[in-house]
Structure formats: C-alpha cells, structure tokens
Amino acid sequence: MSKPKVRKVYVKLLALLPIPFLLTGCMSDCKIEGRHVHKYVHADNRGTITNYLDNEQVKISYEYKVPEHRREAYLMYDHANYNWSSDAIEITKEDEEFYKVKGDLFDGRENWNYLFNIMLNRSDYIEYNYIWDDGEDKFSRWTSQYDWRDDHTGIIHVIHFRYFGYRIIKKDGKYVKEKSPVVDDIRDIIDEYPYFDLGCVTYVSKEYKLNPKDLKNLKLSDIDEFKQPNLTTTELHPNTK
User: Fold this and answer.
1) Dihedral angle of Cα 103, 116, 65, 56, to the nearest 10 degrees
2) 67, exposed or middle or buried, with CB in 10 Å at 0-12, 13-18, 19+?
3) Strands 138-143 and 174-179
4) Do residues 157 and 127 touch, judged by C-beta distance below 8 A?
5) What ranges do the domains of the chain cover?
6) I want to staple 106 with a disulfide (CB 3.0 to 4.6 A). Which of 51, 65, 90, 147 is the partner?
7) What is the Cα–Cα distance from 239 to 213, expressed in whole angstroms?
8) pLDDT in tens, 101-112
9) Residue 7 pLDDT greater than 80, yes or no
10) What are the φ and ψ backbone dihedral angles of 213, each rounded to 5 degrees?
11) How far apart are the first and last CA of the chain?
C-alpha cells in the first residue's frame, strides 16, 4: 500500500525544535487548521530518518531481539528522540486512519541509507560456551570472546542477524498493519513491506559441537552457513539496471 496522496503546507519557525516523542497534541507553535501531519527527524549513529507522524497518535512500537549479553549496548540507542519540523502535509480523514495505524513506522525506501547502515553495522559472530567450576558449583557462561583457558565445552553458537518490516493494507474497509517474514537482506522485502521501525532486527543462532582444541584458530567463515546481505553496494536494487 502506497502512502495517501497529500498536499504540503508550511509553518514559519526559526529552527527544528527538539521535543519528546510522545505528544498529546500538535505543537503550540503550529497554526495549521485541519488534519495534518508534521515531518519529524531522527538522528543517531546510523544516520538520519525523516518521517511524517501523527503526533497525537504515535506510540513507540518497535520490537527487537538481541543476545542478552549484548542487550545493554543496543539500549544505548535513543529510540525515542525525534525532532519536530515545521514542514507539514495536509491529510484527509481516511489518511488520518492510515497514519494512526502506521504509528512510528518510517518509509524504508525514503530512508534506505539508514536501513543499509543497520545491516552494515551487524555482523555474524560466534558465542563460546564455558563451564566455570569453583570446586563446589559449576556455572555455564557464554561469551563472544575466545578464552584460552581450558574450561570451554566445545559448544558454540553462530549468531546471525535478520530483518523484518511491515506493510499497511486495507482489510474489511480498515487499515491494518502486517509484519513481514524475517529475511537476511532488507532488499528482499522492502517493496512489499516498505515500512520499518527502529528495532527491525532479530537474530537466529545455530549450535555446533567442536573439539575444544580447535576453537583457538576457528574463523567464522569456517562454519557460518547463513546467507549474508549484499553489503558491496548501497544501491537499493543493484540488479535491475
């Protein structure tokens, strides 16, 4: 489903104003009458997103799944910080329903560089399993760093990142949001499922049992069987020329 056709309108302001993401109405500086949505800008270390949001309805709806020991690093991203822009577009009552369902999802085709950087910054890696014995109890631990000590079990996990998006379609006269299958490359779904949130990443893992003596010189490329995204070009459709 493509976005509703809209007409752009403007509000005169001196600059972008940083505001919280959850709002209870339009900005007091906005003098636009009637239904409309404003352009918001989100920036972090992966780039910039521009997104038209219904600021009375939008909620943080992202979901993501990362290994527990890496979760803190992912939470460091400021998922909720959007900057309000004076740029706005007028919408109809039907469009308003679309934006309510869309929520904080952004158009991946218009923000492709951001999505590409998400893939670029996530690489498969190995987790090693170790058993620590203090003489009384034994504890199992997982780490992404190889440890030269002799307490490794030879069990490893290859962690592989995958991605998902959404589409907004009409069913029985109402807009609904549908989640895509998870894929190895966002390009595989972006035309059919063009909308994404800031947490459009999940992961899968595969377990291997190896000789602990072989772990020291083990390379990810020796065992990684997962399909990798095409990171050799930033083009959205590199094979269509």
Assistant:
1) -10
2) middle
3) unpaired
4) yes
5) 7-121+161-202
6) 51
7) 43
8) 998 899 999 999
9) no
10) -70, -20
11) 25
109-134 b/e with 16+ CB inside 10 Å = b? eebbebbbebbeebebebbbbbeeee
Residue 233: what residue type? Answer: T
pLDDT > 90? residue 127 = yes
The DSSP code for 181 is P
Alpha-carbon distance of 195 to 214, in angstroms, equals 43
Residues 140, 141, 142, 145, CA torsion sign: negative
Specify the 3-state DSSP secondary structure of 36: strand
Considering only residues 68 and 206, tell me which one the structure prediction assigns the higher pLDDT: 206
- How far apart (Å, rounded) are the C-alpha atoms in residues 45 and 52? 21
Overall pTM surpassing 0.70 (yes/no):
yes
Query: Residues 220, 126: contact at Cβ < 8 Å?
Result: yes
Which of 28-37, 138-147, 156-165 is predicted least confidently? 28-37
Strands 201-209 and 152-163, sheet pairing = antiparallel
Number of residues that make up the chain = 241
Bridge partners (DSSP) listed for residue 142: 129
Is the pLDDT score of 238 beyond 70? yes
Q: How much is the average pLDDT of 22-35?
A: 60
Cα–Cα distance between 204 and 1 in angstroms, integer? 29
**Amino acid identity of 108?**
G
Percent of the chain that is helix, strand, coil (3-state, to 5): 15, 35, 50
